[in-house]
Structures
1.
Amino acid sequence: MKQLAGVLALIACHAAQADEVQVAVAANFTAPMQKIAAAFEQDTGHKAILAFGATGKFYAQIVNGAPFEVLLAADDETPARLEAERRTVPGTRFTYATGKLALWSAKDGYVDGQGQVLKTGNYAHLAIANPKTAPYGAAAIETLNKLGVYDRVQGKLVQGENIAQTHQFVSTGNAPLGFVALSQVYRDGRFASGSGWIVPDNLHGPIRQDAVILARGGANPAAKALASYLKSNKAREIIRSYGYAL
């Protein structure tokens, strides 16, 4: 009986220490963060409640009082801005991943390995994320300008509200190709389906993705635990498997 009481006491202690943390996550990081959150809960007992969307929209929601405690942005500018506005816990901002942009089609063999389809393909639509709110959309516009094809394709652009909707446009065939986050279409060193071109880093600025504990999360142990967990080897292995650089 004493042994059973001891086990029950340990379980009760663990439950008492377990907390939930509200996390705003950039849409491009959906799949890896779902895996990380499951591992985080298993390893720590804390539960991450995830919301996915465009970084720009999350910024507006945070400023207007949304109850997020941790932000995983698709850029480094938004967390830095929140930090400058004293809406974060000082000293908690860090880069958790560096994103990769890809030109992708759900059709096998449609996108060549050098992205020449942008210049030679007879396509009706090219999907991108809204460049005003989604860093991957801004990187896509920068790439088109660097390649000198923006004027040629401008009339074909269709914008997703965020990178998740952009991927949906392409995966359903509503757009034959589009610029998506590599993490959405890449698994363990190759494209999981369709055809794609990994955009060289020199065609757009680095997509550094920063995380930060927001002011609301300052007193929540789960927020601090999650920030630490994102730096763990287990989390970093998951992040790399989706094509991100670290």
2.
Amino acid sequence: MTDQVMAAIDGSQFSEGVCDYAAWASQTLAAPLTFLHVVDNHPQIAEVDLSGNIGLGSREHLLEELSQLDEQRAKVAQEQGRLMLKAAKERAIEAGVAEPGTRQRNGTLVETLSELENDIRLLVIGKRGETAHQAADHLGSNLERVVRTLHRPILMVPDGYKTPEQVMIAFDGSKTTRKGVEMIAKSPLFQGIPCHVVIVGGETGDNRSQLDWALKTLRDAGHQAEGAIRAGEVEETLRTYKQEHAIDMLVMGAYGHSRIRHLLVGSTTTAMLRRASVPVLLLR
């Protein structure tokens, strides 16, 4: 199966949001939906050298018990995963998705997604996984590694769902963000949803030309679009615009050298993702 929406779920608080946004995206894009659960079977208890404290035979017996315990944990994790996939599938069907699929794999999330990348049109993933720190401004390490590895659009979602009604595109005129505008213009994902194109910078001729191009590209494709050029610090300026216009989804480039497009390298996008209370669509 190719060209599908893939939703990575686990036992975190974000899984319901992942399910609901994935169902929305699947129906909006008219693309198949697959839920993915990855069981990481790395041993939970490291082998401890106790040969200096107890007899060798006792140590071998202890290691055998630890091995059996790891096997039991793996079986429990697989069964928990199957139950989560079943619940996610039922939730998506209730939301109107026809025949959502499920997949369970062993390994790491990043390796698994890398193997499945050619099948993915859009990846939906939570802001943090079940093992991540629960602080509101903490960004899951899995998300960081996934974004660095995958070359597919990634929708990072919060723990609650709200149908997008106002979308903001952080735009800087770069090749990546121009490609993103063209992608959004052609895609049915935001059809009927007002798009706000925001450039953070001075009111220069180049910025005005870039903004006019983005708005024309979106409007020619039938989108309702408006734009703004605002001076200031990037993250604060975008956050202020978001609040003023009740933005409920942000679109931005995942990599690059500009101020807006630094991800987990510069502080701007890191701060945006950490503090995001709305979904963020990251484009490559």
